[in-house]
Specification:
Order of helices and strands: EHHEHEHEHEEHHEHEHEHEHEHEH
Distance between the termini: 64 Å
Number of helices: 13
Structural class: alpha/beta
Number of domains: 2
Strand content: 15-25%
Strand order of the largest sheet: 3-2-1-4-5-6
Shape: elongated
CATH architecture of the largest domain: 3-Layer(aba) Sandwich
Largest sheet: 6 strands, parallel
Radius of gyration: 21 Å
Helix content: 25-40%
CATH topology of the largest domain: Rossmann fold
CATH class of the largest domain: Alpha Beta
Length: about 325
């Protein structure tokens, strides 16, 4: 009988992307197993496109005070006949899933009390997610640890992308975290500098970021606003062909960096790059206590250091 493995990864987009190395490591270690991913609806396409899993299940997030939903979730987990579970989410919710399972319970790598491959959550969360996953997997016997990688995803880019040199701009973030946003006026200045150098800015974001995306797009009709028109897999395709990407500490920048795009990522004091910086071979992090204090000229200099920004036009970028 084929071994059954369950991998749990919910969380934010950046966390999911940074787990891609763990996904590949688990796939290589259990090369003949049937591996199932339990994740959020937003990440199902990326999970399928990566080739790490034989099936992708959507976490229905049962409400604990509604027994019918909890029982349905339990039946589904039990029916999977899993011999081992990798809980990469290590949350209270996912740990509770361990206690739903019928006995004898499968091997469980996580922070659930009583599980066979137990880790202390307090210890794991001190590390960057990539290091955290590596530590957790090694304790479960997985010794060949691979880095995050999205190079295997070959989805075509969305329609409406112009030919020629282009770069990604990711100026939004969660609406309840405005302190993580670089000012729109600075993005406008950087976009003008890009156009002067023959690089078309492509704006990436969701409709709840329309205020900032529309303002930047109004700077020049040559700017392409892809708001709400890109799947995660299509962002991988765009990043593969982009000259560079610039953006805030938000999920699509993790996608771009892990796809191999040269990136400049902007951090405020609201988040710690030691614990959440994107992974990539050419990633520069710029951090200020308040992002208002980070000038467009400083971002341009960081791009120049990555050899993707040329100095020919005047270097003063007026916000």
């Amino acid at each position: 009988m084929t071994e059954g493995i369950l991998v749990i990864r919910l969380g934010a987009l950046g966390d999911f992307v940074m787990a891609s190395g763990a996904f590949a490591s688990i796939r290589a270690f259990h090369d003949t197993a049937r591996i199932v991913l339990l994740t959020r609806p937003a990440y199902a396409g990326l999970g399928r496109a990566g080739g790490w899993f034989d099936d992708v299940w959507i976490d229905r997030r049962p409400v604990w005070w509604k027994p019918s939903g909890v029982l349905a979730h339990k039946r589904r987990l039990d029916a999977g006949m899993f011999e081992r579970v990798y809980d990469l989410q290590i949350s209270d919710r996912t740990s509770a899933y361990y206690h739903l399972l019928r006995r004898p319970r499968p091997e469980w790598s996580g922070v659930a009390r009583g599980c066979s491959l137990y880790n202390r959550r307090r210890e794991l969360v001190r590390y960057h997610p990539i290091e955290r996953h590596a530590l957790q997997l090694r304790r479960a016997g997985v010794q060949r640890i691979m880095p995050p990688d999205l190079s295997m995803i070959r989805t075509p880019p969305p329609a409406g992308v112009p030919a020629g040199r282009m770069a990604l701009m990711v100026p939004g973030c969660a609406p309840h975290r405005p302190e993580k946003r670089w000012p729109a006026a600075h993005y406008c200045a950087l976009a003008r500098g890009m156009l002067e150098r023959g690089v078309t800015p492509l704006l990436i974001g969701s409709p709840h970021e329309a205020d900032v995306l529309d303002r930047i797009a109004a700077t020049d009709p040559a700017i392409v606003n892809l708001m709400g028109r890109t799947s995660l897999e299509q962002i991988v395709a765009l990043a593969r062909h982009a000259v560079f990407a610039v953006g805030n500490d938000t999920g699509p920048m993790h996608v771009a960096a892990t796809a191999g795009c040269p990136c400049v990522v902007l951090f405020s004091q609201a988040s710690d790059p030691d614990l959440s910086r994107p992974h990539g071979s050419r990633v520069t992090v710029l951090r200020r206590a308040a992002l208002d204090d980070l000038s467009p000229e400083e971002v341009a200099q960081a791009l120049h250091s990555l050899h993707v920004w040329h100095r020919s036009p005047p270097e003063t970028l007026k916000a």
